[in-house]
Amino acid sequence: MTMSFEEAAQGLVEVGRRLDARGWAPATAGNYSVRLDDGSIAVTVSGWHKGRLTPAGVMRVDLDGNPLTPGKPSAETDLHLSLYRLFPDAGAVLHGHSPEAVGMSRAAADASEWVFAGHEMLKVFPGNTTHEAEIRLPIVDNSQDMAVIEEAIRPALLAPNAAPAYLIRSHGLYAWGKDLAEAERGVETMTHLRIFEESGGAPVTDTRDAAEIAAALSPIGVRFEQWASRPLAADAGQDEVLEAFAPEVERLKAENGYQSVDVIRMVPDHPEKANLRTKFLSEHRHSEDEVRFFVEGEGLFTLREGEKIYAVLCEEGDLISVPAGTRHWFDMGPSPRFTAIRLFTNADGWIANFTGDPIAERFPRHEPVTA
Fold first, then answer.
1. What would the pLDDT profile of 329-356 be if each residue is shown by its tens digit?
2. Considering 187, 221, 240, which residue would you say is the last residue of a domain?
3. C-alpha angle with apex 253: 252 to 255, nearest 5 degrees?
4. CB of 1 within 8 A of CB of 350?
5. pLDDT tens per residue, range 314-333
6. Are 214 and 100 within one domain?
7. Which domain CATH number covers 112?
């Protein structure tokens, strides 16, 4: 999906804030880019803090790196351009400095790659629909000469089973995809489970591994799984969304007797977003399962079972099914953006029965964007 410069600049601003909110863009670290509809590249300007980025911090260059608008492009622009030349379908490239990525690159001090096999999260990578796969994440030594890095990493990127990402040792991670959303998933899979004691305090469990999340939720009757993404237009309607995921939806209906299904979409400029957020941040129950598959976007389900609180951050590709009667609340964040498929036993949909307990006030909310 190609974008105009204005759309790309705004998208890069939003990505910068999200990555900064996770501690992945300290000082002026990182650089981001998008392929535009005219074939040129929108890239972040050198020296900008990505968490405070504005459209003024984005400029255009051609595929040879020549500036097309005022500004000094990032010092690593050549690495972005090499990926666009190597992968014609690449629509966005993100480079972040997460502590996890740096740690992984340093832990493999003598290795040229990390090999992942058997992980549920391998299905995040485009075209991969099973955990029964092997994905290779190349590692290249750092250099101040971008041409040296480009030459060293190229063979590994073209090798079988290479991830659409690579590590620069002691430096950070490059990831790319057909669009910004896919590239961001390569930088980090946001799916996240934290388990707290009901009394509060630090989480006693904190994991981003989908298999671990599913295993932790299963004993309390919560179903968690991931479905492969589908190519959909940004303005895809309900019929298009349901058709794209028809096999999975029909499987759930057959297994659990769900009678109806719909698609809900929330956007940042929804006139009732504040009221809706407040409403569903209050603990409540439903008389039937709450089943939601995230086609795009994200939201935080927090479940209360026994003396434990389970906070599950779901994103694109995640299915969660909360059993009837489970006390929980849902936070779509202050600037919601998600599209989700919902399945119901009752054709009238879910009816929330609020408990009146203010417990939700004691636990983290979903605040994905910070200024």
1. 999 988 888 999 999 998 776 788 999 9
2. 187
3. 65
4. no
5. 988 899 999 999 999 999 98
6. no
7. 3.40.225.10
Tokens read off for 290: 């709450």
Closest listed residue to residue 92, CA positions, set 22, 146, 28, 19: 19
What DSSP designation does 189 have? -
Residue-wise pLDDT tens digits, 14-34: 999 888 876 778 778 889 999
Residue 41 contacts residue 12 (beta carbons within 8 Å) = no
**Residue 17 domain flag:** yes
Alpha helix segments (H runs only) across 4-138: 5-21, 77-86, 99-107
Strand pairing report for 31-35 and 41-44 = antiparallel
Residue positions counted in the chain: 371
Q: How far apart are CA 147 and CA 159, in angstroms?
A: 19
- How far CA 275 is from CA of 279, 303, 331, 332, in Å, comes to 6, 21, 12, 11
Can you say whether residue 144 is alpha, beta or left, with left for phi > 0 and alpha for psi between -120 and 50 degrees? alpha
Residue 277 belongs to a domain with what CATH number? 2.60.120.10
For residue 196, what are the domain limits? Answer: 192-361
Residue the block writes with tokens 């003396």: 307
Statement to judge: residues 149 and 53 lie in one domain: yes
306 and 180 within one domain: no
